[in-house]
Amino acid sequence: MRLERGSNGETINGIGPLLETKSQVPIRVAVTGRRIGLPLFKPMEILGRQKVVTRLQKARADLG
User: Fold this and answer.
1) How far apart are CA 9 and CA 29, in angstroms?
2) How far is 15 from 64, CA to CA, in rounded Å?
3) Is residue 33 a contact partner of residue 59, using CB atoms and an 8 Å limit?
4) What mean pLDDT do residues 17-44 have?
């Protein structure tokens, strides 16, 4: 794995305000496959923007 350059905000561009709500658990499950784990920004940073976006899109499609 490789870390992307830049801040956490750049890695998850556009969803910061969403994470301040109760949506953290569903987002964590979509991104990591687990309900509990590292602070949410860390796995997102490790995975990189494209993988995170892809996983979120897949989770959204699976939910209908």
Assistant:
1) 20
2) 20
3) no
4) 81
